[in-house]
Amino acid sequence: MSKLRPRQQVLLFISAGLLAFAVGASCGSSGDENTGQSCKAAGDCFTAVKMPLKGDAVCLTRVPGGYCTHLCQTDADCCAVEGECKSRFPQLCAPFESTGQKYCFLSCEAAVIQNQDPNTFCQDNANKAFQCRSTGGGSQNRKVCVPNG
């Protein structure tokens, strides 16, 4: 770097910092995904999506830190509109605990994770603070990545 002029050194340093930030920001998957984002109210969710979702946006506050999702009837309702899903992270539609409603979740079902540890899969592919757990939806119960706790 000593052959560069001071201004070039500063620009190179800034460029390297921006590149490192961009690479770091793109890792961690679901941190960039709409479903699973933390929230306090439904209005915090899917704010950049221009088209109406296939169900009303919801902030599940029974999940630590809140969990952005939306109502659904089938798996096809999840990621159904442009801009809703930013990654290829598989999503599914399942009932949540005893609410009587179905919501879109980030999936950690066996077919998705294959031979990986379910919690490691969620932490590596969705969010470091997530775990794989049951939706608690009775006979329609499914495995999903949600905040630990």
Structural class: alpha+beta
Q: How much of the residues is beta strand, in percent?
A: 15-25%
Number of helices: 3
Helicity range: 10-25%
Instruction: State mean pLDDT (0 to 100 scale).
Output: 82
Largest sheet, spatial ordering of strands: 3-4-6-5
The end-to-end span amounts to 48 Å
Q: How many domains make up the coordinates?
A: 1
Give the overall form.
globular
Described by strand count, sense and barrel closure, the largest sheet is: 4 strands, antiparallel
Strand and helix order: HEEEEHHEE
Number of DSSP strand runs? 6
Question: What is the rounded Rg?
Answer: 19 Å
Q: Spans with pLDDT under 50 lasting ≥5 residues?
A: 6-30
Structure description:
The protein has helices at about 5-25, 110-115, 120-125; strands at about 55-60, 70, 90-95, 100-105, 130-135, 145. With about 150 residues, the chain is α+β, with helices and mostly antiparallel strands. It has one domain (about 30-145). Strand 3 (about 90-95) and strand 4 form a beta hairpin. The longest helix is centred in the first third of the chain and has 21 residues, at about 5-25. The termini are far apart. Mean pLDDT is about 80; it is low at about 5-30.
